[in-house]
Amino acid sequence: MSGRKRGPFFLFLFLGPGMLAAMADNDAGGILSYALTGAKFGPAVFVPLAFCLMPVTYTVQEMAMRLGVVAKAGYTRLLRERYGNGWMVCQMAALMIENLLTLLTEFVGMSAGLGLLGVARVPAVLLSAMLTLSVALFSGYRKKERLGLMIGMYTLVFLFLAFAAKSGVGAGESLRLSSGGDFRWYAAALIGNAVAPWMIFYQNSAYADRKMRSRQIRDGRKDVFAGCICQVAVAAALIVVGSSVFGMVPNLESAGPAELVSALSVRIGPAAGILFAVGLFSSGFLAAITVSLSSSFSIAEAFGWSNSLNDSFRDAPGFYMVYGISVLAAAAGVLIPGLPLNFAAVLIQVAGGVLMTPVLIFLTLLTSSRQVMGEYANSQGQKIRAWICVAVLTAVCAFTFFRAAV
To answer: How many CA atoms lie within 13 A of 153 on its CB side?
Structure first.
């Protein structure tokens, strides 16, 4: 294929589920959580912490990619076949609850973004739901993947906002604030957002659906690595952007996205508020698609239904019904008045980190199995890195809830 013919799709030659999962990981809830973290604590501790999490994110996503490419099956099916229905049902139930809560924040972000652009709340929610549902009408896996990649590329605008922003809190004050009691919740939220459970279910199934061959694992690793770089860079940028409005938003946890955007418009300029609002919508849109698909993949695999994005609604009605029900349930839920939206985004990220621990344990066991992976099973070094990630997540969960109980 000539360079001219490839055009802008040249980048998509190896980019795929890894990049999509990483960009969707910086979802509307994540964006609010990152910005809120920066506005509350400043960047001195949380920006370095975000970069320190990159090896954890890569280790987890690389295993999910390799499992999908080699085993040609989704995590849910493999979990049932290797460890029985009991473990599968427990993880499926936890995933469905976490996904619904996550989708709630996506619709909060999408409706808030459209609201800041002049669209009323109810029409904004309806429009968001219609756009998310319309993805199912695209034919073929590749078209859906490219659509997602194009939507996700907009999140890079937060890097430009970070360059325009100036932190409203000094390094010394930021360090002092980060030693407070609330720090543990926001640190757990940062970790939970970096390794959300739905990423494993979506990414693993998407690579299997993409029908990559084992010899293409190197391309898969490039995809995952590029996604991890983008994810951590955008996360750090959002913390910096949030720190620019330090002290400008009273009652941060009970405030809504509009208060954050208004403060950004005052601090950086009206264009910053508009760009942030559009970014909030696009990130919520992409995440709503991928999170809903992770539910569809998982439920379809559990019941043995057709579960390929290459299938039409007629070929895979159960798969697309789960997608539609997930979207509509979240859209209805977001219309509930009085939700503490900003702090809810933080708590949902914390929940993701808690639920990720058992998922990661079984992912490590599956990718270490020679029966499942053959020659592509985890090496000794990969096993060590994976179990370190398990230990880190377990310690964070234990520390968070121990301190909360004291």
So the answer is: 11
Which residue type, as a one-letter code, is found at position 358? P
End-to-end Cα distance, the chain: 63
d(CA 352, CA 98): 7
CA of 151: how far to CAs of 145, 282, 283, 376, in Å? 10, 6, 8, 33
Q: 24 vs 17, 82, 151, 322, 377, CA distance in Å?
A: 10, 29, 10, 19, 27
Residues 6+ apart with CB under 8 A from 306: 300, 315, 316, 318, 319
* Measured distance CA(268)–CA(349) in Å, rounded: 27
Q: Compute CA 368 distance to the chain's CA centroid, rounded to the nearest angstrom.
A: 25
- CA dist 288 and 323 (Å) reads 10
Number of residues that this document lists for the chain? 406
Q: Are 351 and 96 in contact (CB under 8 A)?
A: no
Q: Which of 105, 115, 182, 106 is nearest to 339 (CA)?
A: 105
Q: Global pTM?
A: 0.82
What's the DSSP call for residue 135?
A: G
Amino acid at 348: I
Q: How far is Cα 255 from Cα 263, in angstroms, rounded to an integer?
A: 12
Amino acid letter, 394 = T
The one-letter amino acid at 115: G
Q: Confirm if 288 and 106 have CB atoms less than 8 A apart.
A: yes
Tens-place pLDDT, residues 302-348: 888 887 777 878 888 889 999 999 999 888 888 876 655 555 656 66
pLDDT at 9 over 50: no
Query: What distance in Å separates the CA atoms of residue 35 and residue 238, rounded to the nearest whole number?
Result: 5
Is-contact 183 41, C-beta < 8 A? yes
Nearest to 219 by CA among 326, 90, 69, 113: 69
Tokens of 89: 């049902």
Q: Is the pLDDT of residue 95 over 80?
A: yes
- Tokens representing residue 51 in the block: 């970069």
Tokens of 239: 């913390």
Tens digit of each residue's pLDDT (9 = 90 or more) over 10-50: 445 567 788 888 888 888 878 888 888 888 888 888 888 88
**pLDDT cut 90: percent of the chain above it:** 11
Give the whole-angstrom CA distance, residue 212 versus residue 303: 24
Q: Quick check: helix, strand or coil at residue 314?
A: coil
Q: Domain 12-405: give its CATH code.
A: 1.20.1740.10
**Which pLDDT does position 63 carry in this prediction?**
92
Rounded (to 5) percent helix, strand, coil in the chain:
80, 0, 20
